[in-house]
Each structure stands twice: as C-alpha cells, then as structure tokens.
C-alpha cells in the first residue's frame, strides 16, 4: 500500500513538474491556492515558516478545511512542536470533537462535523483569561477556560498533514491529514467576532502576522499538491 | 477533581481581581456581558434579585444559552424555589427535551438540541388558559396546556447554574450548568410573537419587568466569570 | 413479483398510450421533462445516445435526482459500458457514499444523503491531474485524485436505471434506480465552479456537448414514464 503510493507519487512528479518525494525548496505565497493531501501517508506534510517567532500568549488560528476521512478517524489539523513539547496541536478527534493541546491535556469542542464540504474553522485563545473558543463558519462555540497564564514557546516547527511525536519525526499514517486545506492564517492576538466573520466571508481583514496565506513561506514534503482554488 | 477546581479557581481570582470563591457583594447590570460557568461544580451559581415579587400568573422567560455538555446530561437552566416548592425550574432533560416544572409534574418540549453555539430560548405561560410554549431562535413550539389556574408563589430565591433541592442547599454537580448564559429577561406577561422575534434579533423590546439583563442585580458564588460579549 | 410488474406495465401502456415493455423508437428532447422509474425492476431503463463519441479525457456529468429508496440500498445512477469494461458507472453505494468507477476500482465521496427531495449532483474529472470531485447543489466536495492519465473508451452504451454486468445484459433489480431523474447533461471538459452553480440554479450555461437534456436522443425500455416537470 505504502509502496504503491510512493510509486504513484513518482509518476505524478512528472505530471506536475516538481518533486513531491523530496523536500522542495522553500516556496512563497499561496494566494488562491489549495493544498491537496490526496492519500493517507506517513511522509507527506507541509512545513510552514512563521513571519515571527511563535512565543505566543494569545492567538487566532484560522483555516478552511475539507476531508473525506471517516467520522471516527483522528485527524491532525495543525502541529506546532518544540523539542520536548507539542506546543499547539489541533485535532479532529475520533469522537468527532475538535480539540487543541498546548503542552499537555487538551480542550475539546462539540462542533458540527468536518465534512467533504469546506468548513471555515478558527480557534482563539488568550492566556490572560484562558478563554478559548472555536468558530465554525463565523459562529462562536461556548467559551471554555484553558491554561490561563500559559505561554506557547518559540523556535519550534510547524507542520500541516502530520503529527510529529518527536521533533520532526515519529509520523503516523493513521493520524495524517487527507483532504484539502486553504487560507490558513494566524494572528498573535484574539480577533473580534466581526473580524472572524469578515474572514469567513472572504472580506478584507488584517493580514495574519504569524501566518498569512498569501505570503506564506512553506516547504512541500512527500505527496502534497498545490492546486488552484476554484 | 473538585479539589483541583477549587485550587484552580483561587489562582484565577488573582488574574481577574475579584473573588469567585466567596459570595460577591451584590452587583448591578450585565449589559453586553456573558456569564461563563467554566467547570462542573456543586458550588458555582449566580443568585438573581428580581425587580418585583415573583407571584406570577403569567410569564415570558428568555435567555441565550450555549453549552458543551453531552446531549444526555441533565442541565438546570433556571431555578426559582420557595421554602417547600420548586416554583419554576427550567431543564434541558437527559433525553434532550426542554422542560419546565411548577410545583410538581413538568411539561416537556422536543426542540432542536442546545449546542455549543448560542440558542435563544424563551418560555411563555399564561395561567388563564394554561397555554405554554417554547420559542427557539424566534420559532414557537406547539402549544401545550399546563396548569391552568395555577400561581407561582412569591418570596423565593432565583439561581442560575444550580438546582437547589432545598432552600439554597442540596446542590448536585451532575445537574449543574456548564457553559454560557446571557441576556436573560423575564416579564410577568406573555410577549407577542413579534416581540419575541424582536428580542431574538436583538432589536428593542419592552424591558423585562421581573428581570432585565441590563440592570440585573446579582451575586456571584463559586467559580463563575463575567466576560464581555463579543 | 416480476410477473406482477409486467402485468401492471401492460395495463399502464393503455393509459399512457405508448409501449413501455418494448424498446420505444428513438425519441428526441426532454426539456421540462422528468424520467420517473416508478418500481424496482430488472428490465426498465433508458438508453441515451451521445452527441459525440465518448472517448473522454475529462468530463462534467450533472443530473437532478430524487428517490424514496432506503438509505442502505445500492442505486445505479449512470452506466456507460463498452464490451469488456464499465467505462463510467456512477452509484449511490449501500453505505450512502456516491462513487464512480472507470474500468476497475472506484472512488468514493461522503455526501449529504440523496432523498425524496431533488438533489442536483455533478461529477467532474480531469485525466491530466486526476482531480475529481462531486458537486451537491453547487457545493464542491473535497478533491480526490483518481486515475490520472486514464482515458474513457468510446463506442459503448449508456443506460439510466440499470447496471449492465455485460454489454446490455445482466441487469439486477436490487441495483436498479427507482425515483426521478431530470436535467442530465454531460460535457467533455471540467466546468468551472460558477458554471456548475449556474446549472444548479437553472441559469444559462453552455449546453452539454456529450449530452444535452433539451435535445437528448433516448429510448425508453420497460416501465419508465416521461412526465412534465412541475
């Protein structure tokens, strides 16, 4: 199965004209592009390079995401890891909840299912109060209090598509992301409701100062496609 | 578990600058504020002081509510109790129905689930006819007839977050409210459909003459946060 | 069971005034018409004659479809077969997914259920990239990569209502279509999102150059009714 995927990927390389099996050189900018993770692998991921160090005491993380994976399959949506800690991992859990984990136990949200149609998903967290929430298509979940006083540590690695169990290693196919991701943005503060709704509807909002999809620096690894959004 | 919550709450006190473990002094006014009940406890609640005695022969009770609690968990949404009677208790039952009880057997409504996204919920009852209904996001349930001729007794205590099994005692964590409540209003008459819809959409309606969120007198007990609505 | 259907069909012939048990002569044009497959049979189907040969390296296939069949019943939605291959078969699988198969293993999409209310369904596929998607009521599913480099072979037979397991034979009642189909169109290229949405909303789009419902050449077989759309 894995062997087939590898073989297939090598064929596809020719079709698309860039290597998908070896880390690509750093590329810049994903405006109007979608990342397609077509198969379940333990080697396909996208590394993201943030615009500023990720020592964070608050954040808003937004993305549009769609998947065909079964409802009871764990899915990694975002992984930021330093040497010893999962600093900020976002999951769709096997029970359907969306969760995030900062250096230990996580927090869980009952949201509408993430389906084959695009969901716009934002997470907000503020260390001062611990108030955290998920936003689905511009609607806020109930606030929960999570790790007030905590800080996310800087100088780690950010991956889409895989969950590294150690610093850039220990990938598991059964947790990988399969599907489409686009328009990922991150801010080092909590956006207002009106800003999050503006982002959801594709209106102008302040560009992400941690990640901005339009000017994103990224590296493709394994079998990931960059396709035009339609 | 409970010990941890207490300890955690004491830490949070410092962050917010007001005590959440001892009854706060009476405070006034919750305009643009949300009550967040972040954990399951048997000691966190908010006492409300009505503007007029609650000897009622009709009412409209409205609130906006969101919760992450499981679908099959009993949840107290509003409790008004005199010495010997549950005068008006509103529940989300373990079978998902919304109910209210006045001094004995209750009445039950099949409504869309109360989720992590805010539901606007109103209850109306008129002693003259017994006609009672729930209104979800401005849409009325089927009318049911409940206790025509009955009166709610005055001079009791009103609690959010807990169900007192005796006058301000006998609290159970497994029935407590966890989540967010805002914009609770109560009138001593039945509002028209157009008024209830106006309230749902945040338009101007006659201020509640039993409870008005904007001028509410209340006391915080245990671990309850008052946060800005966004 | 089969005997009863046959008998009934013979009666109906009288009512409608055209033979439904023998292949009808080729007819042309289905503007504002709906095909109704009223019963489960192994003999009712509609043959379609394409405007051009179906040697395809890309396509968009759209139809509007409604059924009362149970959610766990396999349903054939479109069958194009050459002598030895199922060139393009579209199914609602018994697990509820929508799939299509081109000469071998298929590809599967988790979509909202196909119900008694009309669903507008499009499929797109491009051999160059393998990108394939389903569109439900104008919303695109996640892209999946399916058979890049493949070609659909020309000179086969196209059926609605039955799945031939050999060239025009081997029909099974338990896979047949029961319900309504209308507005089937097919193009030999991938329509843009805006075109697919325009088709969904009934606005003007380029006429299908493989099949165009308005000028469709077709033959009715068995018990299939052509009724005015309402």
From TrEMBL, chains A, B, C:
Keywords of this entry: Calcium, Metal-binding
Pfam families: Pentaxin
Domain annotation Pentraxin (PTX): ranges: 31-230
Cofactor(s) demanded: Ca(2+)
Localization per Swiss-Prot or TrEMBL: Secreted
Annotated cofactor note: Binds 2 calcium ions per subunit.
Any single GO CC term annotated in Swiss-Prot or TrEMBL for this entry: extracellular region
Coarse class of the protein's main subcellular location: secreted
PROSITE patterns linked to this entry: PTX_2
Keyword Coiled coil tagged: no
Recorded GO MF terms: metal ion binding
Top-rank taxon, per record: Eukaryota
Similarity annotation: Belongs to the pentraxin family.
PANTHER family from the UniProt entry: C-REACTIVE PROTEIN-RELATED
Subunit structure: Homopentamer. Pentaxin (or pentraxin) have a discoid arrangement of 5 non-covalently bound subunits.
Name by which UniProt lists this protein: Pentraxin family member
Organism: Pagothenia borchgrevinki
């Amino acid at each position: 199965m894995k062997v087939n995927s590898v073989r297939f990927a090598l064929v596809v390389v020719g079709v698309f004209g860039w290597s998908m099996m070896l880390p690509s050189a750093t590329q810049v900018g994903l405006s109007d592009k979608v990342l397609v993770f077509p198969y379940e692998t333990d080697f396909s991921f996208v590394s993201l390079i943030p615009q500023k160090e990720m020592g964070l005491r608050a954040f808003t993380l937004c993305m549009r995401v769609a998947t065909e994976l079964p409802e009871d399959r764990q899915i990694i949506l975002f992984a930021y890891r330093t040497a010893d800690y999962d600093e900020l991992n976002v999951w769709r859990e096997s029970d359907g909840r969306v969760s995030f984990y900062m250096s230990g136990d996580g927090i869980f949200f009952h949201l509408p299912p993430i389906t084959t149609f695009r969901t716009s998903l934002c997470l907000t967290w503020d260390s001062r109060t611990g108030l955290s929430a998920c936003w689905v298509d511009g609607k806020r979940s109930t606030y929960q209090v999570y790790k007030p006083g905590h800080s996310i540590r800087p100088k780690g690695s950010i991956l889409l598509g895989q969950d590294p169990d150690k610093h850039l290693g220990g990938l598991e196919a059964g947790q990988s992301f399969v599907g489409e991701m686009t328009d990922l943005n991150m801010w080092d503060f909590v956006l207002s409701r009106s800003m999050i709704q503006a982002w959801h509807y594709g209106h102008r909002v302040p560009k992400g100062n941690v990640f901005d999809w339009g000017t994103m620096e990224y590296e493709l690894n394994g079998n990931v496609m960059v396709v035009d959004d339609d």
